[in-house]
Design a protein that fits this description.
With 132 residues, the protein is of the alpha+beta class. Helices cover 21% and strands 38% of the residues.
Length: 132
Amino acid sequence: MRTTLTHATVPAQPGWFLAVFTNSDGIYGVRCEQIIAWEIQRTTSSNGLVTRFPLPITAEGRNTDLDCTIWGIKRPDGKLVFPLRANEGISEDKLARFAHLLESESPIEKPNVTSPSIAYCDREIASASRSS
């Protein structure tokens, strides 16, 4: 048996955000995007071992190459987590500094949402938010 890789896309529950961290000329920053779905990569090795790795999909779609960035997931309970296979080679100290940046700036309180109907999941609330 050879190694096989499959993909599946599943919708995300509300409240999950992708946090992409940046360092431009020594200035640290964070960009947050609402996760609307997950791509699940499933690998079955030649000996039958199965591993799964979720990748976030956002409405903004600016996270096309997460291998080249430092990123984490902000869960609905507010906790920031860094997936195991993501951010390989980044020290725990550096990840902790980025996590603190997210906590201190709190950019998720008012997320940038492309469509109010996505954020509110209700046409009446979405139309009311446009008129305000």
